[in-house]
UniProtKB/TrEMBL annotation:
<dbReference type="GO" id="GO:0008652">
    <property type="term" value="P:amino acid biosynthetic process"/>
</dbReference>
<feature type="binding site">
    <location>
        <position position="165"/>
    </location>
    <ligand>
        <name>3-phosphoshikimate</name>
    </ligand>
</feature>
<dbReference type="Pfam" id="PF00275">
    <property type="entry name" value="EPSP_synthase"/>
</dbReference>
<dbReference type="InterPro" id="IPR036968">
    <property type="entry name" value="Enolpyruvate_Tfrase_sf"/>
</dbReference>
<comment type="function">
    <text>Catalyzes the transfer of the enolpyruvyl moiety of phosphoenolpyruvate (PEP) to the 5-hydroxyl of shikimate-3-phosphate (S3P) to produce enolpyruvyl shikimate-3-phosphate and inorganic phosphate.</text>
</comment>
<feature type="binding site">
    <location>
        <position position="393"/>
    </location>
    <ligand>
        <name>phosphoenolpyruvate</name>
    </ligand>
</feature>
<feature type="binding site">
    <location>
        <position position="20"/>
    </location>
    <ligand>
        <name>3-phosphoshikimate</name>
    </ligand>
</feature>
<feature type="binding site">
    <location>
        <position position="167"/>
    </location>
    <ligand>
        <name>phosphoenolpyruvate</name>
    </ligand>
</feature>
<feature type="binding site">
    <location>
        <position position="348"/>
    </location>
    <ligand>
        <name>phosphoenolpyruvate</name>
    </ligand>
</feature>
<dbReference type="GO" id="GO:0009423">
    <property type="term" value="P:chorismate biosynthetic process"/>
</dbReference>
<feature type="binding site">
    <location>
        <position position="19"/>
    </location>
    <ligand>
        <name>3-phosphoshikimate</name>
    </ligand>
</feature>
<keyword id="KW-0057">Aromatic amino acid biosynthesis</keyword>
<comment type="pathway">
    <text>Metabolic intermediate biosynthesis; chorismate biosynthesis; chorismate from D-erythrose 4-phosphate and phosphoenolpyruvate: step 6/7.</text>
</comment>
<dbReference type="InterPro" id="IPR023193">
    <property type="entry name" value="EPSP_synthase_CS"/>
</dbReference>
<feature type="binding site">
    <location>
        <position position="317"/>
    </location>
    <ligand>
        <name>3-phosphoshikimate</name>
    </ligand>
</feature>
<dbReference type="InterPro" id="IPR001986">
    <property type="entry name" value="Enolpyruvate_Tfrase_dom"/>
</dbReference>
<comment type="subunit">
    <text>Monomer.</text>
</comment>
Length: 437
């Protein structure tokens, strides 16, 4: 699919539900006793993989024609033995969080996934879950396919996260739900806190204390969760694509409604403002325990900056599209401290460097990041085909680049976009982007 120079983008749109919150809503609803109701759930492949796995372990999950999801949970401790391997598709979040759930239940589950997921490191969850008593066998290097034999009862542990990862933190907290005693996770670098917020919302006994800059999360196990009504806000990681598109296509002015702006997720928007973006959070409110706003953004002359490395966890999935904004900025943008990008759906540093060079942007690859030489608002040369490498964010980032390029940018395979943002192209077209195609 090709993406070409677009006329000014305009209009008001909504992006699909937050992927992180959607996974957690399904998992915690499946562990509550009774019926939970979820609106705004992301109906992307990653979240549907989580739904299928929870069904395979006993939850009854239904969707009404209007998009209301109902989940009848089995109760903490009540997960059933799945009859077949759990196919996690492309989803790291599903895999790591569900490994945690299974680790403290009397079930054995095999996890499989696509070629991208099979390359991703799982030792970061295997190690602490084995400390809790789970028996885990994995392919060499701690990769998929792997089998988790849950421990019942599991042993509560105190664990300091060696890598800033909300997935590892959440896997341990989910394992802690069916573990007697207190599971204590120490988080030296704060990451997205949706699990903590939602666990509390479902009635779990969870406390967070900050001591010397380290977050101490303590969860009392053998929890009883009560069913909830959850409204999932729009995904700030998905909103990033139309927002950057509006910033780089001259004359654009758009509004993205109902986007989650949890501070552990909104780093990109802070960085774009530092670069000179005309971007505002309008009508700020709280929906289902999460801060939400409409993002109002206009085309802006951007300036390159040194992105503060400490902001990385709050925008870890947004660096690919930030690199496109950086390519249009005046001066260089330096991104460091993001070696984690090398173990996402693709090596996102290598993928962005190769793709930017292919569309005529000068970029230097660093072991832990990249330096992008901005073109000061001049259109990008474009005119290349980009391999999306089973990575939705690489596909969407270069699609956005195409909208500000002299010659169209072609994406070899847009299908990965269905994992997180199934109507991405339709939404861009609704803003007017399709007229250039
Ligand atoms: O917990 C989550 O929902 C996620 C955490 C992040 O991964 P890591 O924990 O590996 O950083 C992020 O990249 C991913 O898209 C979703
Ligand atoms: C890294 C991502 O997801 P996951 O880890 O769930 O595959 C992402 O959505 O960018």
């Amino acid at each position: 699919m090709s993406f070409a120079a677009a006329p000014p983008l305009s209009g008001t749109v909504r992006v699909p539900g937050d992927k992180s919150i959607s996974h957690r809503a399904l998992m915690l609803s499946a562990l509550a006793v009774g019926t939970s109701r979820i609106t705004g759930l992301l109906e992307g492949e990653d979240v549907l993989a989580t739904a299928a796995a929870m069904r395979a372990m006993g939850a009854v999950i239904a969707r009404s024609p209007e998009g209301l999801w109902t989940v009848n949970g089995v109760g903490v401790g009540g997960l059933l033995q799945p009859e077949a391997a759990l196919d996690m598709g492309n989803s790291g979040t599903s895999t790591r969080l569900l490994m945690g759930l299974v680790a403290s239940h009397p079930v054995t589950a095999t996890f499989t996934g696509d070629a991208s997921l099979t390359r991703r490191p799982m030792a970061r969850v295997i190690d602490p879950l084995m400390q809790m008593g789970a028996d885990i066998t994995a392919a060499p290097g701690g990769r998929l396919p792997l089998m988790v034999r849950g421990a019942c009862p599991a042993v509560p542990i105190r664990y300091r996260l060696p890598v800033a990862s909300a997935q590892v933190k959440s896997a341990l907290l989910l394992a802690g739900l069916n573990t007697p005693g207190i599971t204590h996770v120490e988080e030296p670098v704060p990451t997205r806190d949706h699990s903590e917020r939602m666990l509390k919302g479902f009635g779990a006994d969870l406390t967070v204390e900050v001591e010397n800059g380290v977050r101490h999360i303590r969860l009392h196990g053998e929890a009883e969760l009560s069913p909830q009504t959850i409204e999932v806000p729009g995904d700030p990681s998905s909103a990033a694509f139309p927002v950057v598109a509006a910033l780089i296509v001259p004359g654009s002015s758009i509004r993205v409604e109902n986007v989650g702006i949890n501070p552990t997720r909104s780093g990109l928007y802070e960085v774009l403002r530092m670069m000179g973006a005309d971007l505002a959070f309008a009508d700020q409110r709280v929906v289902g325990g999460e801060p939400v706003a409409d993002i109002v953004v206009r085309h802006s002359a951007l300036t390159g900056i040194e992105v503060p490395p400490e902001i990385a966890p709050a925008m870890i999935d947004e660096y690919p599209v930030l690199a496109i904004a950086a390519a249009m900025a005046a001066g260089r943008t330096v991104m460091r401290g993001i070696e984690e990008l090398r173990v996402k759906e693709s090596d996102r540093i290598a993928a962005m460097v190769a793709g930017l060079r292919a569309i005529g942007v000068a970029v230097e690859e660093l072991p832990d990041g990249m330096i992008v030489e901005g073109r000061g608002g001049d259109p990008l040369p474009g005119g290349a085909t980009i391999a999306s490498l089973l990575d939705h964010r690489i596909a969407m980032s270069f699609a956005v680049a195409g909208l500000a390029s002299r010659a169209p940018v072609t994406i070899d395979d847009m299908s990965p976009v269905a994992t997180s943002f199934p109507d991405f192209v339709t939404l861009l077209d609704r803003l007017g982007a399709g007229q250039g195609r």
